[in-house]
Specification:
This protein is mostly helical. Helix content is about 80%, strand content about 0%.
């Protein structure tokens, strides 16, 4: 926990430097495949520092995150299995060093793909579910790439533009609220969105 806190503080300090947007891009890219700290905190800090650039920062974050997701997909597709269908040393490194990334979770994700397809990628992209687990396993299990990209763009864009909009609209007073309740807000939004699609499906 102390290490994660230090990483979190290190991430935030970039908001006070001229390299904040570049750091945001790199962080969003890395978080989609291996880095443990999500880019939301730095995005919030940057938007607070320049609300006129709020949506530019959100776009920056979205593009980088989707590109990072493609890196995760590539790792899973090309570097995850040996020719004999066993885990490679790279896969074992992830299992042993990325918090929460376990073999059991990896195969649980495969079962979820069979049932939910697009929605498992979308939900992971928008909610607190570790996105890197989904991006890598998508490649490892040969999930349709076009569907993966679409789900990533929609979910990551919705997440980061929502954060940017709230800060742009309500200013500093919303920061504490987002920090405290963002995970619950993300889950609630996802439930409402999926419910809307289900309602449309049955209405048609």
């Amino acid at each position: 926990m102390k290490l994660l806190r230090k990483l979190y503080d290190w991430v935030l300090h970039w908001a006070d430097t001229p390299y904040g947007p570049i750091a945001l891009f790199i962080l969003a890219f890395a978080e989609s495949s291996f880095f443990p700290i999500p880019p939301d905190a730095l995005l919030i800090a940057l938007v607070l520092g320049s609300t006129t650039k709020a949506f530019r920062f959100a776009l920056n974050c979205t593009i980088a995150s989707v590109l990072g997701a493609l890196l995760g997909y590539t790792i899973g597709h090309f570097l995850w299995w040996t020719p004999s269908n066993e885990f490679t040393s790279i896969a074992m490194f992830f299992f042993n060093n990325i918090p929460g990334f376990t073999e059991n979770l990896f195969f649980d994700v495969q079962k979820m793909y069979d049932q939910y397809d697009f929605w498992i990628v979308f939900t992971a992209g928008f909610t607190p579910i570790p996105y890197k687990v989904i991006t890598i396993s998508s490649g490892a299990f040969n999930i349709n790439l076009l569907m993966f990209i679409m789900a990533s763009v929609i979910s990551r864009g919705a997440r980061f533009f929502l954060v940017a909009f709230l800060i742009w609209k309500f200013g500093p007073q919303i920061r504490t609220f987002i920090d405290k309740y963002f995970n619950w807000l993300a889950i609630a939004f996802t439930i409402l969105l999926i419910g809307g699609f289900v309602a449309i499906k049955y209405a048609i």
